[in-house]
Amino acid sequence: MHQLLTEGDRHGAYANGALQRGGHNSAASDHAWALTRAVAAGAVQAGWSRAAFVQVLLDGPYPAGQAARALQHRRGYDHAVAWLHRAFDGAQQHLQTHDPLCGRQDFHAALAAYHARIERTPWPGTAAKTDLRNLIARLDICTRTGGWDHTVSERDLAERMGCARTTTHRSNQRLLHARLLRRLDHGSPTQGARWMLLSPTGTGPLNLSHHESTPQRPQAGGAMSGPTMRHTHHNTHHDTDGSDADLDSHTATRLMPLDAFAHRGLSSSGLAILAALGEHDGQTLTELQASASISRATTYRQLTTLTHLGLIQREGELLHLAPAALAGTGQRGPHCEQPTTDWSDVAKRLGVHGVGERRRHHHHTERARWHHTRRQLAALNRRTQPPPPPLSPVHFTQAADTTRTAPTAPEQSTPPEHISHSPHHRRAPSPTASANPEPAHHSPVPSGPRS
Predict the structure, then answer these.
(1) CB 179 within 8 A of CB 193
(2) 277 with 314: CB under 8 angstroms?
(3) How far apart are CA 357 and CA 402, in angstroms?
(4) pLDDT tens across 128-171, in order?
């Protein structure tokens, strides 16, 4: 905060390129407001008063107050003071309702709390499972970058989530509507959009508006013509937050980009089962249904598939993971004669091997097609532009005399040091001479002295 006050935003950490309606670029004003709010948050944490904050930014020579001083010069002192008061009061209210982040350790603690809230939130239904993948992928990006704001495109995010780009777009819209995500800008032709994860207040599960529904398989009346079945999750025991959902988000982060968890493979419900057993191994069918937030029919179907692959073992009423199940290696059992060797083998048995590679190739083809179209448009714009005006010739040559072209601007005379002093040198015509000089009649030079 001291460096931000005395040197300004040198690295552009608070800059964004958002556009208002009508195409008006508000990047400069948004940057000034974000910078002033950040300094105000640091001043509140340091115990400054509002009058001291206004005095430092308006009367001091610090670069962080340049926007406030420019506003004072344009619209007066009272307007600049009201602008600073609004920034200070907003930062003070934000710090009263949120835990302050004083360093990187505080950020990682808040990140771990966000992971815990996601893991303890029920995610019933196909759309909710997709949103879970979206948040987990974004949390992994934030962990690597060290901040809540991050830059990612829809195609890159789809490859991290292991789903289609259109599915990722719909998930982004749902998270924006639920106020769990904020778009800072729309990106550029060579860079993805900038986003920010929002942490809602409270410590319990996230308050989402997903319906607890799962669509049926295609019926005889047409593709996906069956009604939507709603499943109510009954909790056998209630924790302090009233939810039985419990997943291992780190396991889900590592497994969800694999081909085995594509739409036609184990899908998100199989991923949720493995993540739930990875958090608490040895659960009953009812407990697994609650911890993974899936319906009873889906639980039976996925457990049958995972048992035949050798990834899950049954011991009475308890369900356990195989010793190397999270690596895709199964174990021989009464329901599995040929256990899998790795996740690639699982994808081949389920018929989804190569889905991720085909998706990446499709995204690469789309990017290449877009760059090719952009180059074609640039070439077309160059051809449609009017030709530049003709340049003035440097010297009048014999060709210029024959074509009768007049110079458009006086040319620069040759410096004296570059003029040859040979007796056979013929001096060039003057720049101010006529464009169509009359042919000269050369008379013989007399041998005697001139009179």
Answers:
(1) no
(2) no
(3) 67
(4) 999 999 999 999 998 887 788 888 999 999 999 999 999 999 99
CB burial string 341-372: b at 16+ within 10 A, e below: eebebbbebbebbebbeebeeebeeeeeeeee
Closest CA to 65 of 86, 45, 40: 40
- Of 57-61, 229-233, 272-276, 288-292, the one with minimum mean pLDDT is 229-233
Cα(91)–Cα(44) distance, rounded to whole angstroms?
7
pLDDT at 155: 92
Q: Residue 313 has which token pair?
A: 């073992």
- Chain length of the chain: 451
Report residue 166 as tokens: 């259109």
CA distance 428 to 419: 10
3-state secondary structure of 180: coil
* Residue 5: partners with Cβ closer than 8 Å, 6 or more residues away: 39, 42, 56, 62, 64
pLDDT at 188: 76
Name residue 196's beta-bridge partners.
Answer: 149, 182
The lowest-confidence range among 190-199, 231-240, 418-427 is: 231-240
Per-residue b/e over 201-220, b at no fewer than 16 CB within 10 Å?
Answer: eeeebbebebebbbeeeeee
Q: Which tens digit of pLDDT belongs to each residue from 388-441?
A: 777 665 554 554 455 454 444 444 444 444 444 444 444 544 444 444 444 444
For 198-250, give the secondary structure using H, E and C. CCCCCCCCCCCCCCCEEECCCECCECCCCCEEECCCCCCCCCCCCCCCCCCHH
